[in-house]
Design brief:
Distance between the termini: 71 Å
Number of helices: 17
Helix content: 25-40%
Structural class: alpha+beta
Strand content: 15-25%
Number of strands: 31
Oligomer: single chain
Radius of gyration: 24 Å
Bound molecules: oxalic acid, manganese (II) ion
Largest sheet: 9 strands, mixed
Length: 589
């Protein structure tokens, strides 16, 4: 029975029932009793395995289909009325054609199954910045993950009231057929249709599909920003707090930075780092003219491999209870989990991510490289006391990260907001060719939003420029590169907790406490201004070697960027082209 009198909700749910033809319908009220019953059902059917209650209380293991282990960008579509509105970085389908084609796939796809009607809120439901979605799904795994990643249930419907302003999400596992897998966003209709997948990034519709693709479109229309950014707070010894957001391409240590533990010397002096969010930031201009950020999510959907007590103790401690593990190794000896990089002791008696008997000594990986933990953010030892603040946190600095062997220095600051937007648009990562130190293939990923921007990215850059004009107290914009290599192809900067040293320089710049060298690409630190106290096997000369800017390499890079910009044709804002030309001028001097 419906949990709401909202006509728009009930009518849409009825239409989707007529389309998908489920055997039963269950509205998710969000109560622990209901979630417990679903957990028990998932265990009874084998969809989830209950793990050792003493060692991992409230934790479960799930395995996806072997052909369904990651996001599928080539099967992800933005269906805007015209192709130009989606832009050159998105796959596009005509909305009417998409509804028609997908409608045939959804038709009867819930036969013999249950439809779960899942109301969810991105953001604390009572926050003026929260947005409501309803996901229809035939997967208990989806319901239980969404219960961790978002706020769900009756309280969300209560906040929605009679409003028609909600995202309409329809997910069907169907046959999990790769050839018929589609992740489709209709930004103008507030609608997401996802079919033939059971993997998190494709089916937890609150995350990438709503909080980035749909929300970025809403944000442009409504004058705010939805960004693929972590949010962290740094508490200084005098109690002052600085909040920064940061965007990094995949596999660049974003979760690690979000939960960084400062080096011992900093901790002794009273520095603390707190996590507000690890993946997504919704940013709005506050009445005080500053930019304020909320994390719309309630949980972390983190990559398991490589997470350990050294790389990210906070993440590991977060997922010791009430966590769903996906595609990791099942340790049969004590009914726990394991993944590569957790420790040096792979279990002797174990099943790999596919559920097959697994012998680590044979060299094959046990956990899928994209295996995940879904854990409540509130369990993170360094979660910020502002994590659920209605207005979010005020942002002092925005960091764009790249993964570059030679070009980008460890850190630099943009000259101003618009130059910072340009720096974000030029974000890139290189495939590593570590052994030779050769410069790898450059992948452009502006603001780390290329797979997640729900409209033409040229307009998105324009929106950034426009927002800058409206923010009274603009955050300063920086670029970091933890991945500079020496001539032998070794990473030079130690990274992890030592990134705190770079964050301190960033704060000092925000407070006008240190100078910098003005270079063609922006303000680069004077090496003496980065605190190296207590750092291991690293000296100021080495630091200087990763603060250099080689104009020839940059000129090469600019060529690649020009090609990338050319894809957007006339739609590229004049300001961006102006910034590109200005960089060329400065480099040639
Ligand atoms: C993620 C991603 O899973 O960015 O967060 O791919
Ligand atoms: Mn992400």
């Amino acid at each position: 029975m419906s949990l709401t009198t909202n006509k728009a909700v009930n009518q849409w749910v009825d239409e989707m029932i007529a389309l998908t033809k489920p055997d039963q319908i269950v509205w998710i009220d969000g109560s622990e009793a209901q979630l417990d019953a679903l957990r028990a059902e998932a265990v009874a059917t084998g969809e989830m395995i209950k793990l050792n209650e003493e060692k991992l209380p409230g934790c479960y293991l799930h395995r996806t289909a072997v052909n369904d282990v990651a996001r599928v960008e080539h099967r992800t579509f933005i269906c805007t009325p015209t192709k130009e509105e989606a832009g050159p970085t998105n796959n596009w389908m005509d909305p009417a054609e998409a509804y028609d084609m997908l409608g045939k796939l959804y038709d009867g796809s819930y036969k013999g199954r249950t439809m779960y009607v899942l109301p969810f809120s991105m953001g604390v439901p009572t926050s003026p910045f929260a947005k409501v979605g309803i996901e229809l799904t035939d997967s208990i795994y989806v319901v239980l993950n969404m219960a961790i990643m978002t706020r769900i249930g009756q309280k969300v419907l209560d906040v929605l009231g009679d409003s028609e302003d909600f995202v309409h999400g329809l997910h069907a596992r169907a046959e999990l057929d790769e050839e018929k897998r589609y992740i489709v966003q209709f930004p103008q209709d507030n609608t997401i249709w996802s079919i033939n997948s059971g993997y998190g990034g494709n089916v937890l519709l609150g995350k990438k599909c709503f909080a980035l693709r749909i929300a970025s479109y809403q944000a442009k229309k409504e004058g705010w920003m939805a960004e693929h950014m972590l949010i962290l707070g740094i508490k200084k010894p005098n109690g002052e707090k600085f909040y920064v957001t940061a965007a990094f391409p995949s596999a660049c240590g974003k979760t690690n930075l979000a939960m960084l533990i400062p080096p011992e010397g900093y901790r002794k002096n009273g520095y603390e780092v707190e996590c507000v969010g690890d993946d997504i930031a919704w940013l709005r201009i506050g009445q005080d003219g500053r930019l304020w950020a909320v994390n719309p999510e309630a949980g972390f959907f983190g990559v398991a491999p490589g997470t350990n007590m050294k790389s990210n103790p906070n993440a590991l401690l977060t997922c010791q209870k009430n966590t769903i593990f996906t595609n990791v190794v099942h340790n049969l000896a004590d009914n726990t989990v394991w993944w590569e990089g957790l420790d040096k002791n792979p279990p002797a008696e174990a099943l790999n991510w596919k559920g097959e008997p697994w012998d680590a000594s044979k060299g094959e990986k046990g956990a899928h490289p994209n295996s995940r933990f879904t854990a409540p953010a509130a369990q993170c030892p360094c979660i910020s006391d502002q994590f659920e603040a209605d207005q979010g946190v005020p942002i002092s600095a925005i960091i764009f990260g790249g993964r570059r062997a030679k070009t980008a220095p460890l850190v630099y600051q943009s000259f101003d907001w618009n130059h910072g937007v340009f720096v974000g648009s030029a974000m890139a990562s290189e495939t590593t060719a570590a052994a030779t130190g050769a410069v790898g293939v450059v992948r452009r990923d502006p603001m780390a939003m290329k797979p997640f921007c729900g409209y033409n990215m040229a307009d998105y850059f324009g929106h950034w420029v426009e927002m800058g004009g409206k923010i009274g107290k603009q955050p300063k914009i920086f670029h970091t590169n933890w991945f500079r290599q020496d001539d032998e192809g070794h990473f030079v900067w130690p990274g992890f907790g030592d990134n705190m040293r770079v964050l301190e320089w960033i704060i000092n710049r925000c407070e006008d406490k240190v100078g910098a060298q003005e270079t063609a690409i922006g303000y680069v630190p004077n090496a003496e201004d980065i605190n190296l106290d207590g750092i291991k096997d690293f000296d100021i000369e080495t630091l200087k070697s990763i603060l250099t800017v080689d104009p020839e390499l940059w000129m090469e890079d600019v060529k690649g960027l020009e090609e990338f910009y050319a894809d957007f044709g006339d739609r590229m804002p004049a300001e961006m082209t102006k910034q590109l030309n200005a960089l060329k001028d400065r480099l040639s001097k």
